[in-house]
Design a protein that fits this description.
Length: 256
């Protein structure tokens, strides 16, 4: 075989390999939505809920797994039914809580936002009006985050940076990159307690068992202010978790 022919074959092979690599990389750019729990035959035992694909922007999905501690996060974007029981329980157990609040909720509940902040709890960004971020432009995503930060910082004197939680758990690499450029790191969750499914018949007992059956070091739980279940079960949950030898910590404490 002539030397020139060998060179042509080498170049052609290299091009084929390069094209394959590019195709694989492009195929990984998928939208990541709230992932349904994978049922293992028991309605309360689930595989941990994690992103459906790997992403380059270091999204938080769990805390430090080297310690027997877990993180409870509370989203606020609708009602206020469980807020006072949440605050009372956090105070009772001496726990610093973590809240993700929308700008619109903050506007409508200024005194409650002050109460959360004055009680020493963390407040992070949950966008302004809880949109589907993957359907927005880059500019609209940035506006959602900046507007919320401005509203909440005026109430509390503290920025919502550096963390945000995408509404509905919907995000993709573009959303995370835009958020990163705005100064935010995404916080997903390990286990969705499903308290938000109360209107669909999901019960307080099911939510409580979902927490306890999936208790592992570093777990980040997501619960909600605007339902009744969270307020009904939180005190007993905290007691049971501490009795099992676990500590309950804030997000910033739990990712160290």
């Amino acid at each position: 075989m002539h030397q020139s022919t060998k060179i042509i074959l080498i170049i052609a092979t290299a091009l084929i390999i390069f094209t394959g690599v590019v195709f694989l990389l492009q195929s990984k750019k998928t939208t990541i939505n709230r992932i349904p729990a994978q049922n293992n035959g028991n309605n309360n035992e689930v595989n941990e809920e994690v992103p459906s694909t790997s992403i380059d922007f270091t999204e938080i999905t769990r805390g430090d797994q080297s310690k027997n501690q877990v993180v409870f996060t509370f989203d606020g974007g609708a009602g206020t039914q469980s807020l006072q029981p949440i605050l009372d329980t956090l105070k009772k157990y001496g726990i610093k809580g973590t809240f993700f609040i929308t700008g619109k909720w903050a506007e409508n509940n200024v005194d409650l936002v002050k109460q959360i902040s004055d009680s020493g709890h963390e407040i992070f960004n949950h966008t302004y009006d809880h949109p589907h971020l993957t359907q927005l432009t880059d500019e609209q995503i940035t506006e959602e985050l900046n507007k919320t930060d401005e509203i909440i910082s005026k109430i509390t004197g503290k920025s919502t940076k550096p963390f945000f939680r995408p509404p509905f758990g919907e995000r993709d690499s573009r959303v995370l990159k835009v958020a990163e450029q705005a100064g935010y790191r995404s916080v997903y969750w390990t286990i969705d307690v499903l308290d938000w499914k109360e209107s669909e018949g999901y019960t307080a007992e099911q939510s409580e068992q979902r927490v306890l059956n999936n208790l592992k070091p570093g777990t980040i739980y997501i619960m909600h202010i605007g339902d009744n279940i969270t307020g009904q079960i939180l005190d007993e949950l905290f007691m049971n978790i501490e009795n099992k030898g676990y500590s309950i910590v804030s997000l910033t404490e739990g990712i160290i």
